[in-house]
Amino acid sequence: MHPRLVYLAMEIAELLNGNLIEANVAACVLRANFDIKFWCKVLAFRRAYLQNQLCKFGEHPCEPVKENRPMYLQRLGKTTEDILVHGINQTCCSEEELPNITNVDVWYGNTRPQGIFKALSWKSRIPPYHSYIQTCEIRELQARAVKRSAL
After folding, report:
1. Which residue from 36, 40, 56, 119 could staple onto 103, CB 3.0 to 4.6 Å apart?
2. What CA–CA distance (Å, rounded) separates 141 from 79?
3. For residue 137, what are the contacts with CB-CB under 8 A and spacing of at least 6?
4. How far is residue 78's CA from residue 147's CA, in Å, rounded to a whole number?
5. Is the pTM of the predicted complex or chain greater than 0.85?
6. What are phi and psi of 140, to 5 degrees?
7. 3-state DSSP of the chain
8. Domain of life, per the record (predicted)?
9. What is the distance between the alpha carbons of residues 93 and 133, in angstroms, rounded to a whole number?
10. Does residue 36 lie in a domain region?
C-alpha cells in the first residue's frame, strides 16, 4: 500500500467527527478504488462539503443526525443536486426487507432514485445484526440569480 494512502485515510477519518455510518461509507468508497488521485478527490470533496455545511448551518454535518433532524448531503461530482435525509432508523429487518439501494450508491452518484426512498446506510455483520436505513430525497439545487448593480 502506498504510504500516501494512509495519510489520506487519516485525513478523511478526521473529517468524519466519529460518525460510524459515514466512516463505513468512506471505507466502502475508498476500498473500491486504490488510486491516489481518486482518494485526493474524495478528501477534497469531504473538506469542501464540511466547509459548506459549517458556513450554511453553523454546525458539523453529523450533528443533525445525532438529534434526529433532517440534514443535507452533497453528492460527489453532482453539483446540481443535494440529498435531503429525513431520518435514520435502526432495524432488525431480514435480508429480503432491506433496501437494494445503499447510501454509497446515492452519495457517490451510482444511482438516482426518484422521490422519497430508503437507502441502506449500514448493516451489522455480527449479532444482533441491526441495520440502519435512511429515508432520503434527491433535490435539484435552485439556481440563484445575481443582481448586478448599474455603474
Report:
1. 119
2. 8
3. 83, 84, 86, 115, 116, 117
4. 26
5. no
6. -75, 140
7. CCHHHHHHHHHHHHHCCCCHHHHHHHHHHHHCCCCHHHHHHHHHHHHHHHHHHHHHHCCCCCHHHHCCCCEEEEECCEEEEEEEEEEEEEECCCHHHCCCCEHHHHHCCCCCCCCEEEEEEEECCCCCCCEEEEEEEEEECCCCCCCCCCC
8. Eukaryota
9. 10
10. yes
Overall domain count for the chain:
1
**CA angle, 31 then 35 then 39, to 5°:** 70
Residue 147 within any structural domain of the chain: no
What Cα–Cα distance (Å) separates residue 54 from each residue in 61, 71, 73?
8, 12, 12
Total count of residues recorded for the chain: 151
**Residue linked to cell 452533497:** 74
Q: What residue numbers bound the domain in which 29 lies?
A: 3-140
Q: Is residue 149 one of the residues assigned to a domain?
A: no
